[in-house]
């Protein structure tokens, strides 16, 4: 059956390629893809495999991958962007059979919590606390459609107020506990606060079945870029994507004002490119920042409204490298709970209050000398304003404060952290729905709609255009395939009419 499917796919590829070649005098098919992230590479991959050869990819950064960014950090490869494969989805289908992925170890209920006095919170109490947290999260995911006009934060706050009523021992640090819960939810959604997240965001997002936290072993998520370009597993089958990608090329203007001519694309370098179709895959953050000046004429009002009302947030990561690990081998999560009196003090320290967004640290699969910290919401933007040395010193201080009485902590030798929000080529990490999205009744499928459906002049891809898998790499890849298939179908119908 596999052989037959492969044979059929090759036959269809040859047929479509022949059709396109036969009609090149009548049917122009030059394509510019704005952005070489996972959605842009997926688009190019699908088009190259279906007979489109006149493709240029314009990438503002000095590398491909976009928000998939695996880089070397001391002895390890670390992911500054996407890190885990969330279930059995399109990325899983590409990677699992090649032995590139590993299912996660048990992560739920393995949290250890330490308060700001350096005391470890009783593990039995914490297990019960997180058991309730995960049940509440599951309850919300199953019932989100019933809670219209309700934020995720309001739902959790109501549920945990009931929990605290029958667990009065938590009351003394209620503010710190709510802060921790808030930041945990915010890191998944990239929101500033769980009070920003619409319950519709939960009901609209469709989780893939299977393990939610599969890792790439010693490698990183950047491996998916090799799969998309066909560099792996057989380099002889590599598609001409890299050779047709121009790095350090920031698109500043897409002029589609002359419907009877090619679309003109201008860059910050002063270069001008032209094509029959432009597929825009840059982040929603970039569209929010530049859509008024980036398109000529301006995008339709409906599209502008969607760009402005869908939300795009930021999450920060910090990796610390140590000479040797000082935590136990069983350690997974080391969560930080600010005692209420300490919470009030650090709120009033402008340089250090970003630490309120630091959930804690966790170990990293196959990287035994690293700890990884997650910073949520507005605090991640504040962290980015500091120097790496300041962030490192603050991390040393907070680790010693929370963990120094339990572990023989040592100072990290190196640090690397993210700066997604302050990078003008991204302006954040990923999209989500807030209450404004609901109030304005805007949806991802509107963002995905092409400009001029009769000619498909401007198309849109990226995670924010994926109705049910927004905020994910597999959602971005699906959107790239979707737009490539849209063009393939367009020319197939054009040549048969």
| Number of distinct helices | 16
Strand order of the largest sheet: 5-14-15-16-13-17
Tell me, rounded to a whole number, the average pLDDT: 92
Q: In terms of per-residue confidence, which ranges show pLDDT below 50 for 5 or more consecutive residues?
A: 1-27
**What does the radius of gyration come to?**
24 Å
Tell me, what's the shape? globular
Q: How does the helix and strand content classify structurally? A: alpha/beta
Q: Please give the share of residues in helix.
A: 25-40%
The main pleated sheet reads as: 6 strands, mixed
Beta strand %: 15-25%
From the N-terminal CA to the C-terminal CA, the straight-line distance is 33 Å
Regarding quaternary structure, what we see is single chain
How many beta-strand segments? 19
Overview of the molecule:
With 497 residues, the protein is α/β, with parallel strands linked by helices. The chain has 16 helices and 19 strands. The strands form 5 sheets. It has a 6-stranded mixed beta sheet with strand order 5-14-15-16-13-17. The longest helix is centred in the C-terminal third of the chain and has 24 residues, at 473-496. The protein is globular, with a radius of gyration of 24 Å. The chain starts with a helix and ends with a helix. 43% of the residues are buried. Residues 1-27 have low confidence and may be disordered.
């Amino acid at each position: 059956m596999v052989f037959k499917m492969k044979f059929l796919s090759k036959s269809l590829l040859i047929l479509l390629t022949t059709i396109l070649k036969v009609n090149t005098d009548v049917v122009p098919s030059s394509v510019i893809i704005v952005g070489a992230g996972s959605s842009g590479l997926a688009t190019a991959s699908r088009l190259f495999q279906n007979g489109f050869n006149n493709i240029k990819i314009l990438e503002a950064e000095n590398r491909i991958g976009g928000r998939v960014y695996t880089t070397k950090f001391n002895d390890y490869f670390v992911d500054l962007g996407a890190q885990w494969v969330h279930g059995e989805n399109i990325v899983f289908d590409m990677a699992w059979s090649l032995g590139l992925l590993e299912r996660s170890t048990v992560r739920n209920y393995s949290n250890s919590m330490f308060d700001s006095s350096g005391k470890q919170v009783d593990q039995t109490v914490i297990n019960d606390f997180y058991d309730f947290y995960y049940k509440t999260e599951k309850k919300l995911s199953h019932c989100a459609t019933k809670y219209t006009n309700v934020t995720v934060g309001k739902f959790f706050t109501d549920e945990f107020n009931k929990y605290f009523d029958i667990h009065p021992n938590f009351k003394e640090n209620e503010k710190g506990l709510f802060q921790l819960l808030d930041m945990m939810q915010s890191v998944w959604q990239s929101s500033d606060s769980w009070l920003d997240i619409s319950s519709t965001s939960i009901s609209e997002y469709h989780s893939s079945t299977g393990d939610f936290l599969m890792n790439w072993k010693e490698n990183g998520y950047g491996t998916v870029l090799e799969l998309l370009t066909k560099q792996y597993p057989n380099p002889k089958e590599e598609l001409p994507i890299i050779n047709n990608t121009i790095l350090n090329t920031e698109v500043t203007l897409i002029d589609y004002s002359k419907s009877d001519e090619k679309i003109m694309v201008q860059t910050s370098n002063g270069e001008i490119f032209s094509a029959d179709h432009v597929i825009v895959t840059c982040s929603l953050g970039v569209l929010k920042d530049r859509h008024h000046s980036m398109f000529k004429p301006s995008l339709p009002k409906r599209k502008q409204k969607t760009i402005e009302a869908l939300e795009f947030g930021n999450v920060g990561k910090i990796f610390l490298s140590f000479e040797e690990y000082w935590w136990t081998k069983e350690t997974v999560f080391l969560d930080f709970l600010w005692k209420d009196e300490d919470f009030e003090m650090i709120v009033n320290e402008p340089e250090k209050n970003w630490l309120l967004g630091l959930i804690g640290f966790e170990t990293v699969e196959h990287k035994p000398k690293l700890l990884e910290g997650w910073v949520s919401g507005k605090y991640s933007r504040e962290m980015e304003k500091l120097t790496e040395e300041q962030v490192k010193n603050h991390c040393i201080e907070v680790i010693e404060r929370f963990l120094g009485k339990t572990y023989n902590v040592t100072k990290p030798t190196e640090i690397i952290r993210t700066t997604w929000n302050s990078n003008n080529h991204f302006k954040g990490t990923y999209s989500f729905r807030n209450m404004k999205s609901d109030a304005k009744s805007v949806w991802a499928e509107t963002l995905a709609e092409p400009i001029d459906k009769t000619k498909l002049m401007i198309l849109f891809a990226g995670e924010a255009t994926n109705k049910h898998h927004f905020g994910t790499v597999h959602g971005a890849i699906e959107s790239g395939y979707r737009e490539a298939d849209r063009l393939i179908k367009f020319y197939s119908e054009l040549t048969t009419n």
